Amino acid sequence: MITERTPLVIVAEINTIRYRAGKILLISAIEIGRCLKEAKDLLPYGEWGNWLKESVSYSQRTADRLMQLCEEYGTKLLAASDSDNHPDSSPVTNLTYTQALILLGIPEEEREEFIAEHGVESMTNLELQQAVKDKDQAIQEKKDLPKDLILKSSELAQLTT
Question: What is the four-CA torsion angle of 66, 131, 106, 41, rounded to 10 degrees?
Fold first, then answer.
């Protein structure tokens, strides 16, 4: 049976290819991060920055991100890619590279719950960035609440005296 090529069929194909490419990129980034961590541990103190520049042409920031991806996601994702990956094994195993980077802004202990609650797999990167930003803002507002209460109670005390 030949399926007619329609814009809907083509967009589904594009999204599937883009998702697979994002997964491959993430797994590759994690493996590079693992190698970078290994090299950093082997290099003499103070040689890391020069080695990065001369050997792999990475900035310190890029290397740090790759190593952080490895630390944060490596165990789960590399284990899942080596086995028969079941999509429901862990929400983290279904992330793309960009999603994984964005989600570094969520503490590891809260990440899986955040992914499940927000349906991250179906979000655009911009929607995900906004959701992470909203979470950060809500946390900041909670932290500011005691300060606001102290100010209000001080104002109230001044008004009543």
Answer: 10
Q: DSSP readout, 4-71?
A: P--HHHHHHHHHHHHHHHHHHHHHHHHHHHHHHHHHHHHSPTT-HHHHIIIII---HHHHHHHHHHHH
Residue 14 structure tokens:
């594009």
Tokens of 103: 């989600």
Cα(88)–Cα(23) distance, rounded to whole angstroms?
15
Confidence at residue 76, expressed as pLDDT on a 0 to 100 scale: 78
- Taking the C-alpha atoms of residue 72 and residue 109, their distance in angstroms, rounded to an integer, is 10
Query: Which tokens sit at 86?
Result: 């079941």
Distance between CA 68 and CA 55 in Å, rounded?
20
Lowest average pLDDT, out of 24-33, 105-114, 146-155, goes to 146-155
For residue 56, how far is the Cα from the chain centroid? 23
Token pair 């979470």 is at which residue? 135
Token reading at 26: 């993430």
Going by C-alpha positions, the residue among 98, 107, 89 that lies closest to residue 127 is 98
Share above pLDDT 70 across residues of the chain, in percent, rounded to a whole number: 86
Collapsing DSSP to helix, strand or coil, 124 comes out as coil
